[in-house]
Write a structure and sequence with these properties.
The strands form 3 sheets. The chain has a 3-stranded antiparallel beta sheet with strand order 4-5-7. The radius of gyration is 27 Å and the shape is flat. It is 47% helix and 15% strand. The chain has helices at 2-21, 64-68, 105-109, 135-169, 173-193, 197-210, and strands spanning 45-47, 49-50, 53-57, 74-80, 89-96, 115-117, 132-134. Helix 4 runs antiparallel to helix 5 (173-193). The chain folds into 2 domains: 45-142, Alpha-Beta Plaits; 144-210. By secondary structure, it is α+β, with helices and mostly antiparallel strands. It has 6 helices and 7 strands, in the order H-E-E-E-H-E-E-H-E-E-H-H-H.
Length: 213
Amino acid sequence: MAYIRGAWSLIAGLSVTLREFFKPVVTSSTPASCLDISPGFAAIRKLIAEKGSPEKVACTACLICVKSCPSASIQKVEGEKREGEKRKTATTYILNFTTCSQCGICVEVCPFDALAFSADFNIVGYKREDCYFDLVKEFERGRTQDERAEIIFLIIALTTMGGAVMAILSGSIIYAMIGLVTTMFGIAGLYVYLNSPFLAMMQILIYVALLPS
């Protein structure tokens, strides 16, 4: 009788597992993937690029946001007038996020629409200084990361395509094998680039097992 009760409890537990297994996924594998942030989410401020000049911030260091901030969280804004330009361009924009009240006044009063709310919700640090941000440097860092990501993708894609062409057109079995291995690791690299390390690992494990010993 005890065995029957034990088996029944096991079946009941597994039935719950099976029901949940086929339900839609509601969790997110942070930080590899995150849930979509609402357009109205108000996180740390970010500087917007000038229209027609994506490499330059629209902020002119007019200091209106500094004077309007009720928490005095915008601690330092500096700019310079570059050669051939009619107005200044911000070179430093220090925001103390530890005292920011998220009121959004700085975004509203900016006459050049140079400020906006970012979607960066995961702001952490071990000391106060970690929450002091230079928004100009953050803007430049984001632009550099985008360019670097494009370059990395192009390198991986060209390597994968080169390996495939070598495997197809090579008349030597050795070079064909090198091309296949290059293509295999290139595809795995694309999976990693797309935040799918599990698929990258399976790509390597499956095809390594298929290679002739």
